[in-house]
Design brief:
Blueprint: H1 3-6, H2 15-24, H3 32-52, E1 62-66, E2 72-74, H4 75-90, E3 94-99, E4 106-107, E5 116-124, E6 135-143, E7 164-170, E8 174-179, E9 185-190, E10 195-200, E11 211-213, H5 224-234, E12 244-245, H6 251-261, E13 264-267, E14 278-279, H7 280-293, E15 297-299, E16 316-317, E17 319-322, H8 324-340
Organism: Acorus gramineus (Dwarf sweet flag)
Domain Fructose-1-6-bisphosphatase class 1 C-terminal: 205-334
Protein name: Fructose-1,6-bisphosphatase, cytosolic
Length: 341
């Protein structure tokens, strides 16, 4: 990409313009999705601003509570959650919301209901706020059958039923990555315009990558296939170069790098967390949706990740996300273990 030339571009593809273009291709569309997305984008801009000012505004201190996962909540977590809940409810296009920070799902007042349910992690990686590592918001969108008689079952659907998913990363720049089912596009916030401008059109993950991303501190508790795969990354027997280890510990940042550069991101099950650590609805599903839309794969160790059917809103799952060929290698290792038992 020629950044010097881009600096003088006058035909700017904003995220709003992009979504309106998509909408115009669907004559039956009423514009509800566009309105919903504009409220999500507004929430991301607000959180981006709050994250940038966190140190100054003393928002970093602990809020003194723990969330439903038993993690200490930072004040920014609480603020971000409130911002997104209010933005989504006020859009008038949602009927049920599931947030990582709330134990129960939020059912929107019938007078404000629309046909979408949104699952989201308002501030993923918030334990990294203090040291300036990139953090982000993750979201997924489903459509409900009957907004007037909505039940929790409307949310407990397989990820393959998702209409759209995305994340916003608050780092050296504020980057919004979105898929509504026809490819993946990346937008960067131009602070002078207050607009997200398309900077990464039609993201395609390389078929094979040179990076693996995993918390090796958990290695002693891994299962056989995971241990074998990581060993293969470090000591390849086919004469190829070893893969590089890159692990940030902030899912949005790790997945963003994986999408752009290829490779694999692993958060496997282990003896301490037999069901894995990442939450299905608002971490595993949206990232798996994006990965598949970019030409990669998402695997749980047993099945395609998007075919999972959660039984509770905070269910967890192991996950392997990344380049198509790399995930094929992991699948082969799990298949070999099954055939040997």
């Amino acid at each position: 990409m020629d950044h010097a030339a881009d600096a003088f571009r006058t035909d700017l593809m904003t995220i709003t313009r992009h979504v309106l273009n998509e909408q115009s291709r669907n004559p039956e569309s009423k514009g509800d999705f566009t309105i919903l997305l504009s409220h999500i984008v507004l929430g991301c801009k607000f959180v981006c601003s709050a994250v940038n000012k966190a140190g100054l505004a003393k928002l970093i201190g602990l809020a003194g509570e723990t969330n439903v996962q038993g993690e200490e909540q930072k004040k920014l977590d609480v603020l971000s959650n409130e911002v997104f809940v209010k933005a989504l409810v006020s859009s008038g296009r949602t009927c049920i919301l599931v947030s990582e920070e709330d134990e129960e799902a939020t059912f929107v007042d019938p007078s404000l209901r629309g046909r979408y349910c949104v699952v989201f992690d308002p501030l993923d990686g918030s334990s990294n706020i203090d040291c300036g590592v990139s953090i982000g918001t993750i979201f997924g969108i489903y459509m409900v059958k009957d907004k007037d008689n909505v039940t929790l079952d409307e949310v407990l659907q397989p990820g393959s039923n998702m209409l759209a998913a995305g994340y916003c990363m608050y780092g050296s720049s504020c980057t919004f990555v979105l898929s509504s089912g026809s490819g993946v596009n990346g937008f960067t916030l131009d602070p002078s315009l207050g607009e997200f401008i398309m900077t990464h059109p039609d993201i395609k993950i390389p078929k094979k990558g040179k990076i693996y991303s995993v918390n090796e501190g958990n290695a002693k508790n891994w299962d056989g296939p995971t241990a074998k795969y990581v060993e293969k990354c470090k000591f390849p027997k086919d004469g190829s170069s070893p893969k590089s280890l890159r692990y940030i510990g902030s899912m949005v940042a790790d997945i963003h790098r994986t999408l752009l550069y290829g490779g694999v991101f692993l958060y496997p099950a282990d003896k301490k967390n037999p069901n894995g650590k990442l939450r299905v609805l608002y971490e595993v599903f949206p990232m798996s949706f994006l990965m598949e839309q970019a030409g990669g794969q998402a695997f749980t160790g047993k099945q395609r990740a998007l075919d999972l059917v959660p039984s509770k809103i905070h269910d967890r799952s192991p996950i392997f996300l990344g380049s198509y060929d790399d995930i094929e290698e992991i699948k082969a290792l799990y298949a070999a273990e099954v055939s040997n038992t």
